[in-house]
Fold this protein.
Amino acid sequence: MSPHEAPLTTSGLRGRLPNRRQLPLLAWMVVFWCGLWGSISPVVVVGGVLVALALVAVFPMPTLPPAPLPSLVGSVGLAAYLTWDLVRASLQVAWLAVRPGPVPPSAIVAAPLRSRSDAMIAATAELVSLVPGTLVVDIDVPTGTLYLHALVTGDPERVGDDVRASVRRMEERVLAALAPGSLSGGVDIADDVREARR
Amino acid sequence: MSVADWISAVFLLSGSLLALAAGIGMLRFPDLWTRMHAGTKPQVLGLLLVLAGVAVQLAPDAGAVVALLFVGLFQLVTAPVASHLLARAGHRSGVVPRDHLVQDDLRVFELECAAGEHPRPSGSPASAPADEPAARPAES
């Protein structure tokens, strides 16, 4: 078991008050609120703080255990790759949609992940949906396996390997950005993320 | 037309074309899953391009540009989630025809589970609750 056994399911008032780890969430909600109002006047900011506190109290979110700080270089790299992937995927699917001729066949491929952390699996699954020709059909969390629906544009024999390679690259980028150091120091980062939520 | 107008026009037109292609894909593609491909990728990029085109026109109004940024951000975050949930619903309800799949690892996995090759706390394949990391098979 992990050292991060935070009592997260505390009911009652104590569990509902925001704690220090929720500060980023609160800050993000206030920023979002100000963005929606298009103003940073004191009334809006105070209103945003009140709304954020109310939301955290009414809809408490499970708190994640302490995570390493995201890496700036990794994040920029991830964003650049994502932009490129999104453009490539969009053009590819758009072309498949409008080109004359039959629609390509498809396949459901199992792609194993290296990380067992809920947060990393979620991030990878989400981003994999944006890369060319794949769609997440199911996720098996205990084995860390993504089941992806893929449009087969090349050799049907190689579709499995192609998809697994692209998922692997995406996960490496996600880990490099969000959990720096996990790639070098063994892969099984943060089983504790999931355990700490129980 | 000023330079900004031209840039806007290019963004708006290319975004609209992508959205059109997404719509055509929705009509032409044969099943739920292939349609979700059309509904998530060209559609998202199309919307982002349209937003960029609008932002160029509204640039002096920072508040409006921030609002557009949020629209794009939430589209990026929610579109994959929505498509995943639809795709999974299609899989679990079993209504999506699987006969044009050239490969179906998920079906294989379910058959293996049914045959008891992946022991789990509760039987349902690929949807078992995640509270028993112990049930992890060796390696890929």
Notes: DSSP finds seven helices and three strands in chain A. Residues 122 and 139 of chain A are 9 Å apart (CA to CA). Chain A has two domains: 13-58, 72-195. Chain A touches chain B through 57 residues (CB under 8 Å).
